[in-house]
Automatic annotation (TrEMBL):
Gene Ontology BP, a term: DNA-templated DNA replication
Residues making up the signal peptide according to the UniProt record: none
Keywords noted in UniProt: Nucleotidyltransferase, Transferase
Record protein name field: DNA polymerase III subunit delta
NCBIfam families, per database record: holB, PRK08058.1
EC number: 2.7.7.7
Origin: domain of life: Bacteria
Keyword set includes Nucleotidyltransferase: yes
Transmembrane segments: none
Species this protein is from: Peribacillus saganii
Pfam families: DNA_pol3_delta2 (PF13177)
GO molecular function, one term: DNA-directed DNA polymerase activity
Enzyme class: transferase
Length: 335
């Protein structure tokens, strides 16, 4: 089993098994829609499938060898019969699809088959989507298409109906954590990130951002302050919190981090210390967990989730956070 296949098999086993079955039975569809969250391997799988279709030395009738000329040229992005279309600016334009159609009206340069991948297919303009529809309705022989999207609801139903849908599952937190650790991220940061995103690329970027490192410190400090003195916590919002969490997206991430702390307290109460995320703080959290009931802990988590919901409306962020701090403080002793 090649390394690329093995890695993608671990992330998306159902998809890779489908490719294996399709290749062995010689039932390759004309067009596939690869849909799922960011960072789930859609583009990598599209490339792997293209290699399977053009590989000169297939392994067991389905797996690309990764060593032949075709596999290597697809990897490097310069195979003349494999084309990739990506948004030009904010959208994929009609001219891009027209150029693709013109290219596919010619004979294959080296292979019997021609393949195209459309990245962010949901960003096609209306005219581009209509042009592609005609292309899908009257496909050239030995042509295969891979449409990639994170927003399947934005794809025209008429296009969806002409594609075989492949739904990519989000990376599990454990799998994402392991991948981050493999890439040099420390275990606690990897654990935290794996509970905030499903995307490896996004997680790896966060791990190197000073903003994210500082965000963790500020959230932990707010948690400590609201436990001890709500007035100091309210002051801390003005002095530190709002200077760091400046927009809705950043504030939402801050609330997610805060929620993880209360989840840790719950894991400790449920005698599941192996699930604790802020492992560097587990000693003090074990003490904190003794002084709060599960009902009150659930209430506090509910307050944070409600704050996240209100944040997406037009609620004033400052008033929202001040109210949250007061809610978290009330009744924090064991009841």
């Amino acid at each position: 089993m090649t390394e690329n296949w093995r890695e993608l098999q671990a992330i998306q086993p159902d998809i890779l098994n489908m490719i294996k079955s399709t290749m062995k039975k010689n039932r390759v569809a004309h067009a596939y829609l690869l849909e799922g969250e960011k960072g789930t391997g859609k583009r990598e799988v599209a490339q792997l499938f293209a290699k399977s279709l053009l590989c000169l030395e297939l392994i067991d009738e389905y797996m690309p060898c990764e060593q032949c000329a075709n596999c290597k040229r697809i990897t490097s992005g310069n195979h003349p019969d494999v084309h990739i279309v990506e948004p030009d600016g904010l959208s994929i334009k009609k001219d891009q699809i027209k150029k693709l159609q013109d290219e596919f009206s010619k004979k294959s340069v080296e292979s019997k088959r021609k393949i195209y991948t459309i990245v962010d297919a949901d960003k096609m303009s209306v005219n581009a989507a209509n042009s592609l529809l005609k292309f899908l309705e009257e496909p050239h022989a030995d042509t295969n298409a891979f449409l990639i999207t994170e927003q399947v609801q934005r794809i025209l139903p008429t296009i969806l109906s002409r594609c075989q849908a492949l739904t990519f599952k989000p990376l599990s937190p454990q799998r994402l954590k392991d991948k981050l650790v493999e890439n040099g991220v420390d275990p606690q940061t990897s654990s935290i990130i794996s509970h905030l995103t499903h995307s490896f690329e996004e997680g790896l970027r966060w791990s190197s951002e000073e903003w994210f490192a500082q965000a963790q410190k500020i959230v932990l400090k707010l948690y400590e302050m609201q436990r001890q003195n709500p007035l100091k916590a309210l002051l801390y919002l003005q002095e530190e919190w709002f200077l760091h969490f400046k927009d809705k997206e950043q504030l939402d991430r801050g609330l997610d981090l805060l929620l993880l702390i209360y989840k840790d307290l719950l894991y400790i109460q449920l005698d599941k210390p192996n699930l604790v995320i802020f492992r560097n703080n587990i000693g003090e959290y074990e003490s904190h967990a003794l002084h709060i009931s599960q009902k009150r802990l659930a209430d506090k988590m509910g307050f944070i989730l409600e704050a996240k919901r209100k944040l997406m409306s037009n609620t004033n962020p400052q008033l929202l956070m001040e109210q949250l701090v007061l809610n978290l403080q009330e009744g924090s002793s064991f009841v």
